[in-house]
Amino acid sequence: MSIRIGILGYGNLGRGVECAIRQNSDMELAAVFTRRDPAGVSILTEGVPVCQIDDAAEWKDKIDVMILCGGSATDLPEQTPKFAEMFNVIDSFDTHARIPEHFANVDAAAKKGGKVGIISVGWDPGMFSLNRLYANAILPEGKDYTFWGKGVSQGHSDAIRRVEGVKDAKQYTIPVESALEAVRNGENPDLTTREKHTRECFVVLEEGADAEKVEEEIKTMPNYFSDYDTTVHFISEEELKEKHSGIPHGGFVLRSGKTGWEKENSHLIEYSLKLDSNPEFTSSVLVAYARAAFRLASEGASGCKTVFDIAPAYLSQKSGEELRKTML
Amino acid sequence: MSIRIGILGYGNLGRGVECAIRQNSDMELAAVFTRRDPAGVSILTEGVPVCQIDDAAEWKDKIDVMILCGGSATDLPEQTPKFAEMFNVIDSFDTHARIPEHFANVDAAAKKGGKVGIISVGWDPGMFSLNRLYANAILPEGKDYTFWGKGVSQGHSDAIRRVEGVKDAKQYTIPVESALEAVRNGENPDLTTREKHTRECFVVLEEGADAEKVEEEIKTMPNYFSDYDTTVHFISEEELKEKHSGIPHGGFVLRSGKTGWEKENSHLIEYSLKLDSNPEFTSSVLVAYARAAFRLASEGASGCKTVFDIAPAYLSQKSGEELRKTML
C-alpha cells in the first residue's frame, strides 16, 4: 500500500512536491488543496482531484501525510498547527527566530490529534541544520561557517522590486571564494557579513526611471544590501527572462575543529549543495520526511519533531537490513 | 552526573577516544582495559586505572558505555558481542561485507543483556554512510560517488612492508582531481577503479635490496595496486619519519540527481572530510555515539543499532530546545 500524500498550497513548492512524489514508488498523490478556485488550478498528475482548502477535513481518513507548501511569513504559523490536529504534517517553516514558538504550537496541536508534525524541513533549515549538529557533536571545539549561494534570494529580489522605478529584478547571493578558501585552509577567520557574501542584482527599469538613483537606493537599503558589496546590472526585460528565470541555489556548511591531547590536529567537515531548483530540492526533502512522519505515526508517535529528532533510516524506502548491506 | 566511559584496547584509536573524552564536559574516563600487562601501559589521563581486559566484568556497574577500540579483522567480531552482554558498547567495525553477520551477533548479545550496541561508527562506515543514506532518500534518481583521500591507507602500507627488501613504507590514496571535477560538473561519469584514485608509495629499502624489483612487485600486487596507477618513491628512513609519520585521511561522498516532471533539473550534494588524524577523528565520532548509546539505554532501548538508527539529537550535549534555537 502506498503512502497517500496531500499537497496544501500549489505554488513552486507544491509543484515540486508533486514531481518528487512521482520519483518515490511507495507514494501516491491523493489530492491537492488550494485557496484559489480549484477549477482554475490545473496540476501535472492525471486523475488527482484539486480541492478547496476548506474541504480538507473531509480527507482526514484518505490522506496519510499532508505536506504544507505555504509561506513562512503568514501561511504556516496558522496552517501547520491547524492541520496537525487532523493530519500528519510536514512544513518548511524557515523563520529561524520563530521556530521555538512554531514548534510549541504544532506540538500542542499534533499531540491533541494524535498526529506527527515535522517542521522546518528543507535544506536551511533542514540538511544544513543536520550538518551543523553532526559536526558540532563530533568536533566540540571548533568553529562553524555557513555560506549561501550562488543562488537567487527571493526576499532580496522582492525588495528590489519595491524600489521606485524598478519593473522587475533578480538578486543573486554569492559566497566570497577567498573567504571559503580561508576556512578550508583551517585559518579559522572571523568574517564580517561583507567578507562572506556579495550580492549581484539584475534590474529592469521602468521607462524613464533614473538608473543612478535606483542603484543608490538598492545599495544603501538597510538589512538587505547596505552591509554587502553589491553590484547592480541594468538589463532588458527579455534578457532577464532569458537568462535569469531559473531558481538555482545552494551553499556550504563547514566546521573546522581540533582534536588531540594538546589540540594538535585539525579537521575540516564540509557539506555543500549545488541546486538547479531551490523549490524542487526543498520539495524532495519534504517528501523524504513525509515517509518518516508516516512511519513514526504508524508506530504510535505523536507531537512535533524536527530533522534532529528523526533517525535517518526512517527517510529511506529500504529496510534496515538493505540499508546496512548497501549503504553502511 | 557524567557519562562514565571505558576504553577497551589502547592503540591509536583508544588514545584518540581518551583525548575526545576530555573535550566533552558531560563525560569522564572510568578505566582503560588492555590485553597487555597493565603495569606497562601508561595513559594520558591522571588518576584513571589501567586494567586487565579479563577484569572488565567487575566494572559492569561502574561504566556506562564501553568503547571497543580493537581491529575489525579479529578483535571486534569476538569482543563486541561478548561485551555487549555486559555493557552498552560502541565499535568501529569496518569490514563492510561482514556487517550483516556482525550486526546479528551483537543484536542477540545486547538484547540478552538488555544493553545497547552501536556498531560500525566512524567516518566510513559512519558519517559517509549517513551522507549516502540522506542523499539517496532526497534524490532517489541519481548516482553515488565515494572518493577517499588524500590519506594514509594502513592496509596498503602494511602490504608494501611485506614485500621482500622493504624496511618500511607509507602509502597514500589520492582521489583523481579530474574525476572529482567531472562528478561535480554533473557529467555522471562511469569511473573505473583506475580513474578514481591513484596510489603513492614512500618506501625505505633494506640494505642491498633491488629497487627495480621491489617497485615492480608493488605495482603488480593484485587487489592492492594492480588496478591503480601507482607511483613508488624510494626515500631514506629519516625522511619517512620526518615527512610521513602522520595519519591524515579524508574523502568525498557525492550524489548527483535529477528532479522535475521531466527530470529537467540537476542537483549535487557533496560531503567531504579533511582530517589531520584519521584515528582521532574516528574516536571523536565514537564518543558522540557513546552519548547516544547512554541515552538510548536510559530510555530502555536494547539491541544492536547503527548510525542509521540514531536520531541526530542524541549525539549532542544540548537539549532539544537549545538545538532548535541555535542550530536549526
Task: Report on this structure.
Two copies of one chain form a homodimer. Chain A has 328 residues and is α/β, with parallel strands linked by helices. Chain A has helices at residues 12-22, 75-84, 99-113, 127-138, 154-161, 177-184, 193-196, 211-219, 237-243, 278-298, 320-326; strands at residues 3-8, 27-34, 50-52, 65-68, 88-90, 116-118, 142-148, 151-152, 166-175, 197-205, 229-234, 249-259, 265-275, 303-305. Chain A has a seven-stranded parallel beta sheet with strand order 3-2-1-4-5-6-14, sandwiched between helices. In chain A, strands 8-9-10-11 form a four-stranded mixed beta sheet. In chain A, helix 8 (211-219) links the parallel strand 10 (197-205) and strand 11 (229-234). The model of chain A has no long low-confidence stretch (mean pLDDT 97). At the A-B interface, helix 1, helix 3, helix 4, strand 13 and helix 10 of A face helix 1, helix 3, helix 4, strand 13 and helix 10 of B. Strand 13 of chain A pairs antiparallel with strand 13 of chain B.
Question: What's a quick, concise take on this entry?
Answer:
Chain A has 328 residues and is α/β, with parallel strands linked by helices. Helix content of chain A is 34%, strand content 26%. In chain A, the strands form three sheets. In chain A, strands 3-2-1-4-5-6-14 form a seven-stranded parallel sheet, sandwiched between helices.
